[in-house]
Write a structure and sequence with these properties.
Elements lengths: L8 E5 L3 H12 L5 E6 L14 H4 L18 E4 L3 E5 L4 E4 L4 E3 L2 E4 L3 E3 L5 H4 L4 E2 L4 H12 L5 E4 L3 H12 L4 E5 L6 H18 L3 E4 L3 E7 L2 E7 L4 E3 L2 E4 L3 E3 L11 E2 L2 E3 L5 E3 L5 E7 L4 E5 L5 E3 L4 H16 L12 E6 L2 E7 L6 E8 L4 E8 L2 E8 L5 H10 L26
Parallel strand pairs: 1-2, 1-7, 2-3, 7-21, 9-16, 10-11, 10-16, 11-12, 19-22
Antiparallel strand pairs: 4-5, 5-6, 8-17, 13-14, 14-15, 18-19, 20-21, 22-23, 24-25, 25-28, 26-27, 27-28
Helix pairs in contact: 1-7
Length: 426
């Protein structure tokens, strides 16, 4: 089928948020042909952010997180089936049950999976958990509800910090360990990560920053603790591994697409690239798995694990596949939010590569503030801690690449000039 011909069959690989919103955009754009959604979980698309927060506290049941959808009965769902291989020349997708699925257009939205614990045998212990699926969250919720004596969380990124905060909400002793100098250091830098770490410490989290687990101690099929590389042993009767995510790209091996563990490469509109760097105009990608050049960051390729980004990019990709003329490249401002106990952290832009950070609203001592990040004299990101009302103004500065540091005034700015600090990214 020529690239400009109207498709009759569209397949969406990935039944998560991006896959769902992409499929909805395809229908909204007027496509009435065959639309199939393939997903390796047995569930219809559901919301993942509550899994590490409200599901663990028991406020929301794991099976109550299904996403609302405008899709009708004219969609074929292939669930509990994964993609195995992709034959682009024949335009066929081979599924894990041995079937083949033809397509005229393909949306790749296979997302990520939880990065496993480094020792596979220890990862199989009955009381070692990770959180990616709603089944993961349901199992961990049941375990936390049984009031374990001590929880160990390995990894102090957003998920790890959220789980630690939930444990304190449930009045459970919890230790949070990471090799970085502070929680969230990779995402927010050491300066802001250290502020947030002190908030967690003040709420009773035992922080072990700059430490690394060598292996888990265990007996009778259960973890009993963790031995650190310095020889110290931390006791625990529940271990949560929160070491980030791995992008689901293995099924594209041999397809000729430019894909690796960091994602599948796309052009500035969203078409995937082949190994020679040319776009395949029958395939687009969206969500966590898509690596694309962002114009706000000099065309640097990024793959974002953000809820709002998954929605925006999927809607763009769906319209692209149907054949809509989209002259403007995809360039939505990255944004992210995290609820950690009663603390809300929201961000706009990407902090990667920042060479300075300033507190521009509020005061970390009051646990309510906005930090603005700069690089080469321009604003590149803003992070609000319990100060979401101020974030849009600074998001505008990020979107326009405004000069850093800002010199305008605001009623809630610190009395002193904001101190510019090295963010100390790991």
């Amino acid at each position: 089928m020529p690239a400009d011909a109207r498709p009759e069959r569209i397949v969406v690989v990935g039944a998560g948020l991006a896959g769902l919103r992409g499929a909805e955009a395809i229908r909204a754009a007027g496509f009435r042909g065959s639309l199939t959604i393939v997903g390796n979980e047995p569930h219809r698309p559901y919301d993942r952010p509550p899994l590490s927060k409200h599901v663990l506290t028991g406020q929301v049941a794991a099976d109550a997180s299904q996403l609302p959808s405008s899709l009708g009965d004219d969609v074929t769902w292939r669930l509990s089936i994964g993609a195995e291989t992709l034959d682009r020349e024949a335009r066929r997708l081979r599924l894990s049950n041995g079937e083949t699925l033809p397509y005229d257009r393909l949306l790749i939205a296979t997302g990520t999976r939880a990065r496993p614990w480094i020792h596979a045998d220890e990862a199989k212990l009955r009381n070692v958990f990770s959180i990616r699926s709603r089944d993961d969250a349901a199992s961990l919720r049941a375990t936390l509800a049984a009031k374990p004596k001590r929880v160990l969380v390995i990894g102090a990124g957003f998920i790890g910090c959220e789980v630690a905060a939930v444990c304190r909400e449930l009045d459970l002793p919890v230790c949070l360990i990471d090799s970085s100098p502070s929680p969230l250091a990779r995402a927010l830098g050491h300066t802001i990560g250290a502020y947030i770490g002190e908030i967690h410490r003040g709420r009773g989290v035992d922080l072990r920053m700059g430490s690394e687990v060598a292996h888990l101690e265990h007996a009778d099929g259960r973890a009993t603790g963790a031995r650190l590389k310095d020889g110290e042993v931390l006791s625990a009767d529940v271990v949560v591994v929160a070491l980030g995510a791995v992008r689901n790209t293995e099924w594209m091996t041999g397809s000729g697409l430019s894909a690796d563990s960091g994602g599948v490469d796309c052009d500035d509109h969203g078409h995937v690239l082949d190994e020679s760097g040319q776009p395949d105009r029958s395939i687009a990608a969206a969500g966590d798995v898509a690596r694309f050049p962002h114009p706000l960051y000099g065309g640097r390729r990024v793959a974002l694990e953000h809820w709002g980004h998954a929605v925006a990019q999927a809607e763009h990709a769906g319209r692209l596949l149907v054949g809509e003329d989209l002259p403007v490249p995809y360039a939505a401002l990255p944004n992210f939010w995290s609820i950690q106990g009663d603390m809300v952290v929201k961000s706009a832009g990407l902090t990667d590569g920042a060479d300075a950070v300033a507190i521009v609203q509020g005061d970390p001592a009051d646990r309510r503030f906005v930090a603005l990040y700069g690089r080469a004299g321009r604003c590149i990101a803003a992070v609000a801690v319990d100060s979401a009302r101020w974030l849009p103004a600074y998001a505008d500065k990020v979107a326009s690449g405004a000069p850093f540091p800002p010199i305008d005034t605001a009623t809630d700015r610190p009395l002193r000039e904001p101190e510019i600090r090295d963010p100390g990214f790991a």
